[in-house]
Amino acid sequence: MDGHDGDDPKQSTADMTAFVQNLLQQMQSRFQTMSDSIITKIDDMGGRIDELERSINDLRAEMGVEGSPSPSTPKAKDESKPGDDSA
What we know:
- The chain is mainly α.
- Helix content is 80%, strand content 0%.
- The chain contains two helices and no strands.
- The protein has helices at residues 8-63, 73-86.
- It is rod-shaped.
- The protein starts with 7 loop residues before the first helix and ends with a helix.
- 0% of the residues are buried.
């Protein structure tokens, strides 16, 4: 009634477009932040696992376990089975 009825659909479309673009930018920013955080945590976990492996190997060396059977021994048995099949 105040003369804005003719421009209202265009303004409404422009407002909606701006709103959606802003929302998508916010979502992209949040996803990027989460992605960076996840990658950082995975890298930290990898470092901790490497540290743990070194500590375990150091403890095994201190205990003199290096010469005794390790958890990889059952794998050696599994490896011999396919060798028997191929022979």
